[in-house]
Write a structure and sequence with these properties.
about 350 residues, alpha+beta, Endonuclease III, domain 1, Nucleoside Triphosphate Pyrophosphohydrolase, 2 domains, three-stranded mixed sheet, 7 strands, about 40% helix, binds iron/sulfur cluster
Length: about 350
């Protein structure tokens, strides 16, 4: 396409998306209305970290809980890390929660509790990557930054029928997003694109009939919307095995605090057989006695592998332990323990068998 007609198309896309947002913006607790005051940077940062790999619908209640409990970045910096991890439980990708705390402490102690405004400065914060820095700069501070999340990636890949497979195609998608991002209102524009990607230009069955950029969309013109973005073929994930240990007495369940470093670090969990070190677990119980083993009660998918979990249930009455970092938790209040989803699934399996 000639440069002039590309620019004309980019301007049209930009204008249509901007106009659509005025009447169709999703109401989300971390946002301000289109064209209104810029939102609180703490809210934008917190929501953007939560939204990585997670849908807005799932994030809403977590965001509200965090803001109620820790209304400012300084409050979050003062939070007990175990409490923060427990409040995060269920959102997954727990390294995000640890970095959240680290970043809150950094901003409070080294920046007087004030977020930097420039994308380049935001990028230096712990746990803030290219996407999050661009999103905060654009949405909270009005900087013209180019924001590309998974929803925007799909929308832009379809608009321009970008056929270089991901991840290589990301550079082309970013440059196309750069071309359609307006000089003013980049934050609203990014959020408008996110909304269209989440609600109209969906992975399956996009609603092209109500799409504000249908006329400019190449994928739609060739009636091949779902072919974009083109993805490199997926590698099969390796399967690993783990064993969790269920030790219960007088209505209480034995839990442990996981080591601070490593997978699900610092979180409360059932005792397990060390699978998180990178291999299958060793399956050896933590104490001698009679155990009943239930095979493959939970399957869980991580980014780079799948995990199949056996549950070993302690059968003896008497229980003596000298294990460190372990404590009893009332089973009728287990929902408050803030167990990661993987362990919560095992608890659910076990408690449902008994009802
Ligand atoms: Fe997506 Fe369809 Fe709109 Fe193209 S026309 S951007 S495929 S919803």
């Amino acid at each position: 396409m000639a440069v002039d007609s590309f620019s004309a198309k980019a301007r049209k896309i930009s204008a249509n998306i901007g106009a659509h947002y005025v009447d169709n913006a999703r109401t989300l607790p971390w946002r301000t209305p289109p064209g209104g005051d810029l939102p609180n940077p703490y809210h934008v940062w917190l929501s953007e970290v939560m939204l990585q790999q997670t849908t807005a619908g799932a994030v809403k209640s977590y965001f509200e809980k965090f803001i109620r409990r820790w209304p400012t970045v300084q409050d979050l910096a003062r939070a007990d890390e175990a409490d923060l991890m427990a409040a995060w439980a269920g959102l997954g990708y727990y390294a995000r929660a640890r970095n959240l705390h680290k970043c809150a402490v950094h901003i409070t102690e080294n920046m007087n509790g004030i977020f930097p405004q420039k994308e380049s400065e935001l990028l230096k914060l712990p746990g803030v990557g290219a996407y999050t820095a661009a999103a905060i700069a654009a949405i909270a501070f009005g900087e013209r930054a180019v924001v590309v999340d998974a929803n925007i990636e799909r929308l832009v890949a379809r608009l321009f029928a970008i056929d270089t497979p991901l991840p290589k195609g990301k550079a082309e998608i970013r440059s196309a997003m750069d071309a359609i991002t307006p000089d003013r209102g980049a934050g609203d524009f990014a959020q408008a694109c996110m909304d269209i990607g989440a609600t109209i230009c969906t992975s399956k069955n996009p609603k092209c009939d109500i799409c504000p950029v249908q006329e400019q969309c190449v994928a739609h013109a060739i009636r091949d919307e779902e072919a974009y973005p083109v993805k490199a073929p997926k590698k099969e994930k390796p399967v690993r095995r783990a064993r969790f240990f269920w030790i219960e007495q007088r209505g209480q369940l034995l839990l442990s605090t996981r080591p601070p470093k490593g997978m699900l670090g610092g979180m409360r969990a059932l005792p397990d057989d060390g699978w998180a070190a990178g291999n299958d677990g060793h399956a050896r119980p933590p104490l001698a006695g009679k155990w009943q083993v239930h095979d493959n009660i939970v399957q869980h998918s991580f980014t780079h592998f799948s995990l199949e979990v056996d549950l070993a249930v302690y059968q003896d009455e008497k229980f003596v332990t000298d294990m460190v970092s372990q404590f009893w938790w009332p089973l009728d209040n287990i929902a408050e323990a803030g167990l990661p989803t993987l362990f919560a699934k095992a608890v659910k399996w076990k408690t449902e068998r008994e009802t």
